[in-house]
Amino acid sequence: MTISVFLLDDHEIVRRGIAQLLETQDDIEVVGEAGTAAQALARIPTLRPDVAILDARLPDGDGVAVCREVRSSVEPPPACLMLTSYSDEEALFGAIMAGAAGYLLKQVTGVDLIGAVRTLAAGGSLLDPQATAQVLQRLRKGDEPVDPRYASLSEQERRILELVADGLTNRQIGAQLYLAEKTVKNYVSSLLGKLGFARRTEAAVYATERRHANRRSGPS
């Protein structure tokens, strides 16, 4: 049986490389690609792939949000494999909560990526058991208070919120995240609206207080 795969990555050369790698295998077929979250959300429901390989960081959102949406709206839902350049505990937490079946760094070898696609297509999981256990423990203990305002933020908005708290300007944030300054401004406006703040200084104070609260509730 052929495994159908959808690729989401904002770098065309990365998509091409992964597609060429996967299509060297007789049992894997790349049925679609996208460079933005919006494109992926429009195409995945129609293509209904067995596996969706999703980049965690996107110019118009994040792969975790795409995972959450397609897992809840597409039938049958694809097995989602998050592929990211960064090891990030919060991103892993978000991926698990969104229903992702795998989480890999882009430094993964080609052989391991092919194996991951086959594992997920067969109903397996590639989430680290220890990391998953830590997430479940956080949920059971309620170490991190659930704030519906913060929960409504996308991964990219949370990342930008942290940089706002660090005192970075929109231009500096854009340089760090490889985003246009106008795009950052739009993200800041969006997160301010979701948090119910009028000024970025209020958001910075909010993010700083969250940091302190998380440190106090973490392991000693």
TrEMBL record:
Domain of life: Bacteria
InterPro entries from the UniProt entry: CheY-like_superfamily (IPR011006), NreC/VraR/RcsB-like_REC (IPR058245), Sig_transdc_resp-reg_C-effctor (IPR016032), Sig_transdc_resp-reg_receiver (IPR001789), Tscrpt_reg_LuxR_C (IPR000792), WalR-like (IPR039420)
GO terms, biological process: phosphorelay signal transduction system; regulation of DNA-templated transcription
Record GO terms (molecular function): DNA binding
Domain (HTH luxR-type): residue spans on this chain: 146-211
Modified residues (4-aspartylphosphate): 55
Pfam families recorded: GerE (PF00196), Response_reg (PF00072)
Residue ranges of domain Response regulatory in the record: 4-121
The keyword Transcription belongs to this UniProt entry's keyword annotation: yes
Keywords: DNA-binding, Phosphoprotein, Transcription, Transcription regulation
Protein name: Response regulator transcription factor
Naturally occurring in which organism (per UniProt): Pseudonocardia bannensis
